[in-house]
Design brief:
By secondary structure, the chain is of the alpha+beta class. Helices cover 33% and strands 26% of the residues. The strands form two sheets. The chain has a three-stranded mixed beta sheet with strand order 3-4-5. Strand 4, helix 2 and strand 5 form a beta-alpha-beta unit. The protein is globular. The model has no long low-confidence stretch (mean pLDDT 96).
Length: 89
């Protein structure tokens, strides 16, 4: 598993409003691949992004399709605390 494989998966998670990937929009920060674990930070394009939750779960699912544990942290979002709790389960 390497960072490039993860980036390719992230390029398939599309924001339906802009039709660009979360990676190409610069919404992914602090990407780290360590063994069977991927850590990253997702910063929605707006604190009130109407699809912020859906994108966060899509990011987690997409990365985990690689057979690794994905730890997605959301920042800059109105309900980030609650969302991070659910994503951590």
């Amino acid at each position: 598993m390497d960072e490039q494989q993860v980036i390719e998966k992230l390029r398939k998670v599309m924001d339906p409003h802009t039709r660009q990937s979360v990676w190409d929009m610069g919404l992914i920060e602090d990407l780290k691949v360590e063994g069977n674990e991927v850590n990253l930070t997702f910063r929605p394009s707006s604190p009130f992004c109407p699809i912020g939750q859906q994108l966060a779960f899509a990011i987690k699912r997409s990365v985990e399709e690689l057979g690794v544990k994905a730890k997605v942290k959301v920042v800059g979002y109105v309900k980030e605390k609650e969302l991070n709790e659910v994503l951590g389960k």
